[in-house]
Amino acid sequence: MKARHSNWQAEPPAPPLEDSKIEARWGRRFRLPGMAILVASVAMAATPEYTYKIVHVYPHDRTSFTEGLEYRGGFLYESTGEQGHSVLRKMKLETGEVVQEIKLAPHLFGEGITILNHEIVQLTYKTELGFVYDMATMKEKRTFIYNGEGWALTNDGTQIYMDDGSAQIRVWDGATLREKRRITVHDDNGPVEQVNELEWVAGEIYANVWQTNAMLRISPADGRVLGRVNLAGLLTDEDRKGRVDVLNGIAYDAAGKRLFVTGKWWPKLFEIQLVPKNLAPKQAK
Ligand SMILES: [Ca+2]
After folding, report:
1. Ligand 1: centre distance to CA 160 (Å)
2. How confident is the model over 231-265, as pLDDT tens digits?
3. Most buried among 67, 86, 149, 158, using CB within 10 Å?
4. Sheet holding 119-124, edge to edge
5. Residue 197 burial (CB count, 10 A)
6. How far is the CA of 40 from the centre of ligand 1 (A)?
7. For the chain, how many structural domains are there in total?
């Protein structure tokens, strides 16, 4: 090992190239400052950035430690976390009124949900136990197991996408819940870790990143980050009085093309539209 080790010794740094040598290597038209600007602008263009516009504000139960959120036919379905407090519930979007709810066993910590073929699929955090419920009755139909932590779910109508807090999204067969492949969420800087709540939006996966205000637009084909949305500033200082936790929860009304976001213990749920950052109005100083 010692002999191999010496191969890893850093070589002395190469002496800086003189300008004339740079020009000889790259040609007169590609002096370094120009190249730096070119490279920087390519890197900046690689991941489009977005801000947002609030379209509507709805109430959200500030005792809900939101872990999974999905929209179907005028109702929001929400799975909440924390041992002893985890529930699966159906709520009216406009009022937040709970119309149906089941409680999880006290030792379970509810996590992501998704609705496929009139069934609600739900993860738990560290217990490697999943549930499948009838969507109409919320009665448990069966359970399933998976490896590792359960964070979030979404689906494209056929396949289910599941994440575990890493940069990986597992792709499951929607019928068998067996893993088919994985994709790694990544941008120009490498893998993006702690990908949390997921939502299928018009052929892309949207995901918020735990403990940040970032929501990513991800290619389901290869995990590439197609866009980055800065959701900072949704809650006012007044909203933040009392207990609030991080952004978590994305739901999409595919028929109405409405995008909803909320957070753990947030008093509000927001319908938002994404705005390309270069089109956003300048903030007043
Ligand atoms: Ca969701």
Report:
1. 12
2. 999 999 999 998 999 999 999 999 999 999 999 99
3. 67
4. 110-116, 119-124, 129-134, 140-145
5. 33
6. 34
7. 1
